[in-house]
Amino acid sequence: MPKTIVVPEGTSKPLAPYSPGTLADGILYVSGTLPFDKNNDVVHVGDAAAQTRHVLETIKSVIETAGGTMQDVTMNHIFVTDWANYQAVNKVYAEYFPSNEPARYCVQCGLVKPDALVEIATVAHIGKK
């Protein structure tokens, strides 16, 4: 099956061998997205809400680059470093998915950089282009 690598304009080089997104058969898989700036440094240190907004805006840019919208999201995989941040993450998350919420799960774990408080990976069905 042919696939298309999706890289929004201005995306920095990933820390590991992966692409921001992969589109195959109308399904977009967005890699785990952390609150990184262009230099792969963590932004909004200590602020789970601001980090969540940054992550979701980054995911949105991948989806839009592939020709979709946030309404096309069908599944989110959410990783938090501390359950104490769960409410802040959910408050911002609800702004991006106010209705017809996608399926999701959330787990507590360590992330690749200690100052990162949240990571989200996404699946979106944007249709065959």
Structural domains: how many? 1
Largest sheet: 6 strands, mixed
Q: According to CATH, what is the class? A: Alpha Beta
Q: Mind telling me which CATH architecture this is?
A: 2-Layer Sandwich
Radius of gyration (Å): 14 Å
| Structure class | alpha+beta
CATH topology: 60s Ribosomal Protein L30, Chain: A
Query: Roughly what fraction of the amino acids lie in strands?
Result: 25-35%
Number of strands: 6
From the spread of the alpha carbons, the general shape counts as: globular
DSSP helix count?
2
**Strands across the major sheet, in which order?**
1-2-3-6-4-5
Helix content: 10-25%
Oligomer: single chain
What's the overall average pLDDT, rounded? Answer: 95
Would you identify the regions where 5 or more consecutive residues have pLDDT less than 50?
none
Order of secondary-structure elements: EEEHEHEE
Q: End-to-end distance, in Å?
A: 14 Å
GO molecular function: deaminase activity
EC number: 3.5.-.-
Enzyme class: hydrolase
Catalytic activity: (Z)-3-aminoacrylate + H2O + H(+) = 3-oxopropanoate + NH4(+)
What does this 3D model show about the protein?
- This protein is α+β, with helices and mostly antiparallel strands.
- It has a single domain (4-125), classed as 2-Layer Sandwich (60s Ribosomal Protein L30, Chain: A).
- The chain contains two helices and six strands.
- Strands 1-2-3-6-4-5 form a six-stranded mixed beta sheet, with helices on one face.
- The protein is globular, with a radius of gyration of 14 Å.
- The relative contact order is 0.25.
